[in-house]
Amino acid sequence: MPVGTQGTVKAVPQDTLESLGAEIILGNTYHLYLRPGHEPIRRMGGLHRFISWPRAMLTDSGGFQVFSLSQLRKVTDDGVQFRSHLDGSSHSFTPEHSIDVQIALGADICMALDECTEYPADRRRAEESLRLTMAWAKRSLTHFRAHRDEVPWRDRCESHQEQGASQHDQGVPHPSSSWVGSLSSHASHDRTQSLFGIVQGGMYADLRRQCAERLVEMDFDGYAIGGLSVGEPRELTLEMISEVLPLLPKDKPRYVMGVGYPDEIEQYARMGVDMMDCVLPTRAARHALLFTSVGRVNIKNKQYSEDQNPPDPACNCPVCRRYSRAYLRHLVQAGEPLAATLNSIHNLAFYLGIMQRVRASFESERWSLAEP
Ligand SMILES: [Zn+2]
After folding, report:
1. How is the beta sheet containing 71-75 ordered, strand by strand?
2. Residues 158-173: pLDDT tens digits?
3. 186: which residues sit within 8 A by CB, 6+ positions away?
4. CB-based neighbours (< 5 A) of ligand 1, an ion
């Protein structure tokens, strides 16, 4: 899932994301809540309509950015108080408030408010943090179940289905056709948002297992494994995923948050992870780092100044089909905004291409198993 922090995957227009095959993008609740605000977005029909994105969307709970970006945060059992990184104004997220904001934004998938346990954390700290995450998960689910019908696009979906109207309302799409709509256990006429719970527990396998079991009892629409890729060694990331994954229902989406490098996402997908998000392809692109079939290419390097080859000789993306390494290097050197756009398009194509190949190999395995 490409990350669209502020309602945009930085430097890449929505139609390009569609043509690259992005089926779902992320929005960050913390950022959208502060600016432009969830109420204006709700009044405009929700995030899909506001940013003109007809495919699936996921919003996080806002918690991660509160912990990483805002100052003077204060965590209590009730929730977290924080000051905006934009203007210093005071705010708070409780599990209920985060759900209210995410319902107003109207993404297909909402996430329960959790505390992302830092690394390293001693066992007592991880236990205390997990206690909070599990209590907040329960409150998030209760509140979500009571209010899930309030999503801004729901009325429009229903009237459209009754009238057999097209998926487009005044040319701007709504999300009723997205694949994520099928996650809902309700009948198709009752489609609304889905809520995922997040497994925490620091780097303690037994705490992780305990959290997974409790969340599965609560019966979320999908499950995420959070608090990874926070500075721990990669073997530990892998160990935590291996411990938790078998405990999560196979017939519901399993999402590892905030990973990873190209080889990691392939490895996790082959282990059974269904969803991942990472800012890496776009963030690295803005720092002139390309992920390619021949390894990482720092396109700023002088060695590319007259290199007429495509950025990645094995890539068929619109950037590699059209432009040379020398030109991309020139754009970076000249500080041209097009550099960020072209580098991001290639990196996203590379990441999405990995997942397309993994899916294709699962398909062919299934076919070969089906043969007599
Ligand atoms: Zn490319």
Report:
1. 71-75, 80-83, 90-93
2. 665 555 444 444 444 4
3. 192
4. 312, 315, 317, 319-320, 346, 349
Q: Look up residue 54 and give its two tokens.
A: 């007809």
Indicate if 312 belongs to the active site.
Answer: no
The full DSSP string for 173-226 is E-GGGSGGGGGSSS-GGG---EEEEEE--TT-HHHHHHHHHHHHHHT-SEEEE-
Which SS3 state, helix, strand or coil, does residue 35 take? Answer: coil
Side-chain-side CA neighbours of 220 within 13 Å: the count stands at 31
State the CB neighbour count (10 A cutoff) for residue 136. Answer: 27
Beta strand extents in the chain (DSSP E only): 24-27, 56-59, 71-75, 80-83, 90-93, 109-111, 168-169, 172-173, 194-199, 222-225, 254-256, 275-276, 289-292, 295-298
Tell me the per-residue pLDDT of 70-125, one tens digit each, with 9 for 90 and over.
877 899 999 999 999 999 999 999 999 999 999 999 999 999 999 999 999 999 99
Buried b (16+ CB within 10 A) or exposed e, 149-181: eebbbbebbeebeeeeeeeebeeebbbbbbebb
Catalytic residue among 263, 277, 307, 312: 277
And the tokens for 363?
A: 């398909």
Distance separating alpha carbons of residues 57 and 47, to the nearest angstrom: 9
Active site residue 15: no
